[in-house]
Here is the input.
Amino acid sequence: MEVLVPILKLAGGVGLFLFAMYLIEESLKNLSGRQFKLFLQRITKNSIGAVAGGAIVTGVLQSSSMVSLIVLAFVGAGVFTMKNALAIILGANLGTTLDSWVVALIGFKMNVEVLAYPAVFVGGLMLILFGKRKTVKYLSMFLLGFGLLFIGLSFMKTAMEAQVQTFDFKAYAHMSLAVFLLIGFVITLLVQSSSVTMALTLSALHSGAIEFPAATAIVLGSETGTTIKILLSAIGGNAAKKRVVLGNFIFNIVLTVLAFACLKPMLNLITNVFDIKDPLIGLVTFSSLVNLLSVLIFLPFLQPFVHFLERFFKATDTAFAAFIGHATTSEPETALDLYKRDVEYFMHNCMLLNLEQFDLDTSIMEAHDVFKTLNDSRRFMSKTKDDKYAFLRQFQGELQSFYLELRAKLEDEENVQLNQLVSVARSAMYAVKSIADITGDISNLSHSSIDIKYQFFVQKKEETKVLYAHLYSILQQEEPVTFDALQLLFNQITSSYSMALSSFYKEAQQSPIEDIDMTIALNFNRELFTANKAMLMAIKDFSLNETEASRFNELTTYKT
Here is the structure.
């Protein structure tokens, strides 16, 4: 039983450490909101910025796996280029070593009880008393995680010291370093956290259970072990995601092989050149040095490496949606960002089809950099109008299905945004349906030899052209998006409908016109009015906040 207690204590320490890492990751992720994701998108204009962004975000969030999963979602959706995605992952690998420095400098150099127990007490008390407040809740989780991390580390440290007293580790000191490399890989594969492997290794090194060279070999093994989680996340993903995951795997394999081959010179560099005598500081220096070298080795060759990866995996993505197929609800904020991009893409194509029904020029819209690439890959512009309509119906179905899946994962404020976005898709599709329902009327009016009918169509066609130019400018943020600006557009739509109706009746009294022609023109005017209102409602929900969007719905003119 005496032999079993230290083993159980070690296992308990690992469990506490893992749970603490989870609390810290979740709290920081929620406290930071979507700012880190936006920061990543802003800074990834070049490879150096992408490396720096990956390192900074991972250094703060302390989870290279989480950052890698975010990157996979964005690269699969076309937000990041493959080159910059790989650069972010290189930076993330470097950023995760910050946790190792914290553990080595605080966990083994200070009396952790001084920090850990008060943090657990304050965090637990705040969570019970004020846990309903979002900010306080996640701040409490951070304090709990911070305290439990060092308590778990203390368990591992004392358990390892007890094991050294009862077990002769020196008998295994002669084993090949390759065995320790494999041990590091297996431990990380099981716990899926290189931080836990590092903490265990630091504890073993501190207690004298292993020597410095063996510890560095274990850390090297963890570099590859942590990639398995990312490999599994790419199953079922598109070609771009699989290529990035393969690239990350190759990074770690090559890095492990090169570092292991040069292990003795690197150890000499740390102990003799850098003159680091403390093995704990030496180990975390080794970890940081290895990941820094990987950046220096791979960064200059990222573009040729991308070309190499492009030989693998054929693009087989048949989804209608462009972005959400690469999102996961385990990262709900990222998924919401991608959902918004897909809704914008959906609305873009709805507007394209409606303009095409009137044979209006769509060249400006077709030239949209991102959406043009997506439409080219889906051959959207070469489809018939009926096929485009079917495409949009299927696209809306995918948006609706993902909405049902995502809504349970979001906080209240984010659910409000999600509800507005799904409303955007419904309104845009309704606008498309209304125009599709009058394609026969459009054909009849546009080819009519009766002047009153033809001129009526020409007038409404020109009004539609002007309206969609305004709506598209708002969508592209080329025009200011305000409540008053949208209300003015709505008043123009309503006024146009009423004036066209009045004008047509007046002209019909003066010109002979068949009853059926009257019905065609009036039905056309009504459905076009409905379609234009619906498209404006889509723009409204996409552009305004919840309060202003609700105010817009209450306009008396909307009930006309």
